[in-house]
Please model this.
Amino acid sequence: MNKVSFRLTFAEALEIGVKNAPSIIGCVVLWLLTIWVPYINVGTTIAINMLPIELAKGGVISPLGIFDAKYRKYMGDFLITTGLMIIPVFIASLFMIVPGIVLSIAWSLAYFFLFEKKKNPMQAISASNEATYGSKWTMFFVLLAFVVAAYVIAGIFAWICAAIDVGFITFVVMLALVAVIMSISLAINASFWRQLKDNVQ
Model:
């Protein structure tokens, strides 16, 4: 059974992120700008969740691809899977937070199994739990390192923007920063998927 490697994850995330940076940022910016559009936003949200699958394949993605109608056909399975995960994670989080974190990491690949491996929602959640077995702590520390770095960088940029005190510049800089952070997050998930997808047939 494959396990997540801390070093490999960051190396792959950097490789994937650099190769696809403009495309990923374009996808994220388009998603952020259209998140308020009813119905369309469901398809683009599903497309964003599916991006790591395409990134893990090594291909170059097109930002406009998030508007493809094919993503909306997954709407029912996507919403069912989301519902099946949110309630247990919320309940688990009531027990001193940690169980909720463990469960959210265990199920973090569920959408990928749902879309790429064509499993039903329950099978996808179960497959994600099986695939991440033995890798949860490594995944946790990868995500923790990323979140800490993102907060530090965001804090520095927020301080600089506050010193400049120009509203439009602050908006543009912070929007770009959110897009970059989301892009790196997608690249990390692509690396997780690349390393763990073969753990479950």
Summary: The chain has a mean pLDDT of 87.
